[in-house]
Design goal:
A hairpin with a 5-residue loop joins strand 5 and strand 6. Helix content is 28%, strand content 32%. It has 163 residues and is of the alpha+beta class.
Length: 163
């Protein structure tokens, strides 16, 4: 009779420990933040350089941005398309790689470029009303002599397709 109780207690304890372990694993995996779903890609022209950029044009995709990515291709980036042209700000929560961000107006004219350190809560804002922000690897713009006043040629359909 006691053997049956002990056996049931061991089973209950095992199930409880297993449940707690799985719960902790789930918390740990989401603690770093969500991963970005696959986003549509477009080609952007910046002077003589072609960029392939993922388009973050929804509230969710803009919020997740480049979180939890370990690398970014040499001429790959992420284009944030905002609902309104206004001062836009970015930060690097749960972002694993250092990035540049170029803020641009509705015509694609770059207002300013900011360097952003991985994992920081520092706020980086546009110097004027921005409709776009292009994130690239750190120093990408400087190495190509691109910055304030240069123009990103973005497909018109991309500017219209935002939520």
């Amino acid at each position: 009779m006691h053997f049956h109780r002990i056996k049931n207690s061991i089973f209950t304890l095992t199930v409880s420990v297993l449940g707690a372990t799985l719960g902790l694993a789930a918390c740990a995996s989401s603690a770093a933040g969500p991963a970005q779903a696959e986003l549509p890609k477009i080609e952007i022209q910046l002077e003589a350089t072609r960029v392939i950029a993922e388009v973050a044009n929804t509230d969710t995709s803009r919020q997740i941005g480049m979180m939890n990515r370990e690398s970014l291709g040499k001429d790959d980036g992420m284009l944030f398309v905002f609902k309104r042209s206004e001062t836009q700000c970015m930060w690097m929560k749960n972002t694993l790689i250092d990035l540049d961000v170029a803020f641009a107006d509705e015509s694609g004219k770059i207002l300013n470029v900011a360097q952003m350190k991985a994992g920081t809560a520092d706020i980086h804002c546009s110097k004027g009303n921005a409709k776009l922000a292009l994130e690239m690897n750190l120093n990408w713009f400087a190495r190509r002599g691109l910055g304030e006043g240069h123009v990103m040629r973005v497909p018109e359909s991309t500017l219209q397709a935002h939520q």
